[in-house]
Amino acid sequence: MGYNVKPTEFKQFTELCYMLERYGKVQVKDIQGFEYPKNYYSATFESAGHRFNLFMNCYCPCLAFGVVREEGISFIQNAALKSLIDNYYPLIYVMPPSELSMDIRQSQIAQFSSYGRAAIRSWLPLTIGEAMFSWFFD
Q1: Whole-angstrom Cα distance, residue 128 to residue 17?
Q2: What is the dihedral of CA 58, 60, 63, 66, to 10 degrees?
Q3: Is 59 in contact with 8 (CB distance < 8 Å)?
Q4: Rounded distance, CA 88 to CA 126, Å?
Q5: pLDDT(75) > 80
Q6: pTM of this structure
Q7: 72 bridge partner residues
Q8: Got the DSSP string for 50-105?
């Protein structure tokens, strides 16, 4: 949620993407910065002929791997890249698909400010992944 919070540095995200490329794990095809009203940065990678994305929430150091589909993001696991990120960027959390697909519970919503709770009620993400990597968070 972006209330009175500045986005994290895009530079850190781009450095991370190119570090993964330097280690020969992926080829960076595209990197996109913060574009209101999205709440994430994204990079498109190619590896072994397959394209997928890396997403980083703009307001907290959380990442996820996924494939963009018509109905939204399908989150995937990438153990090799997660291991590299964990090793070189220990303060960044790579969220697993199992966590991202969890339904949002009222106890989690209660932890937000009153402004955050109001936004969630109007925006209605159903899963943790939809809240963390939303194309429309405002």
Answers
A1: 23
A2: -50
A3: yes
A4: 32
A5: yes
A6: 0.82
A7: 69
A8: EEEEEEEESSSSEEEEEEEETTEEEEE--HHHHHHHHHH-TTSEE--HHHHTSBP-
